[in-house]
Write a structure and sequence with these properties.
mainly beta; Porin; 14-stranded antiparallel β-barrel; 3 helices; globular
């Protein structure tokens, strides 16, 4: 199993190194707005939606519902996500509004492995204004390696099935105390035409303030910052994510991963909420 997971990681690196199309730095973080921290580092991400390898670490069936408010309207329901999975199999869908355009992304995923190393595969498609937003069908491959309790490593490749677009995401999570009491994390997304020094990134920490209650702080390369609170009750819980500042620039081109209306879409959303069952 470890040899197969290592092989997948090597294949991902080779494929990503052959990327030939540039892509906006906004894309990965815009698509994964509900992630409090990198998928491999904290609470199994979005149950396989971001990195399908997360599904191999689930102990039982798990489901989460996320939504974000628009401005000060606490009753708005325009941006939301539903993610559900059991050990080795998962499904997720999320709705996002970009100004007058709306798109719903879907992902079906599978994974296998051990508690030390896992790999996963998923297929993604979209509905709604997917043509105007240049969404494309995706093949996603991911691996997570946890060689010991102090370290988590994640690698995800997003491959378009309709063009030569490719995107790679690398993640690291460090637990200095060997437990979930404190997790330090960082991640970055890149393509061939983006140098590693220019790749968009985030870094932060998750602190367990009480059993089942975590505070998460995350800073991005553009100096925006998010603060999140996660409360878990066994197999259920709630979470909130407060965006203190998020300022992005309009990409020069429209790509399958970065809608042209991302400036409006990424304006401050004061509160993102989640419910897990």
């Amino acid at each position: 199993m470890k040899q197969r997971s290592l092989l997948l990681a090597c294949v991902l690196l080779v494929l990503l190194s052959q990327s030939v199309v540039a892509q906006s730095s906004e894309s990965y973080y815009s698509r994964n707005y509900f992630l409090l921290a990198p998928a491999s580092a904290f609470e199994e991400g979005l149950v396989g939606f971001s990195n399908p390898a997360n599904l191999a670490f689930l102990k039982t069936w798990e489901s989460r519902f996320h939504w974000s408010t628009d401005g000060t309207d606490a009753t708005s329901f325009n941006n939301w996500g539903f993610y559900s999975g059991a050990p080795g199999l998962g499904f997720g869908m999320q709705r996002q509004n970009f100004g007058s355009l709306k798109v719903t992304d879907y992902r079906i995923s599978t994974a296998f492995g051990s508690q030390g190393m896992a790999l996963g595969l998923s297929y993604g498609w979209s509905s709604g204004d997917w043509r105007a937003l240049d969404r494309e069908r995706l093949f996603v491959a991911g691996t997570i390696i946890r060689p010991f309790r102090f370290l988590s490593l994640g690698l995800t490749g997003n491959f378009s099935l309709q063009s030569k677009q490719r995107e790679g995401v690398a993640e690291v999570g460090i637990r200095p105390l060997g437990s979930d009491i404190l997790t330090l994390f960082a991640d970055a997304a890149w393509t061939k035409d983006i140098q590693m020094t220019d790749a968009p990134w985030s870094a932060g920490a998750a602190l367990q303030v009480l059993p089942g209650i975590h505070f998460v702080g995350r800073v991005f390369e553009n100096e925006s910052f998010t603060a999140g609170l996660s409360i878990n009750f066994g197999h259920s819980g709630i979470a909130g994510n407060l965006t203190l500042m998020r300022i992005r620039t309009m990409p020069s081109t429209v790509t399958p991963f970065a809608p042209a209306d991302c400036v409006r879409a990424c304006s401050p959303r004061p509160l993102a909420k989640a419910v897990a069952t």
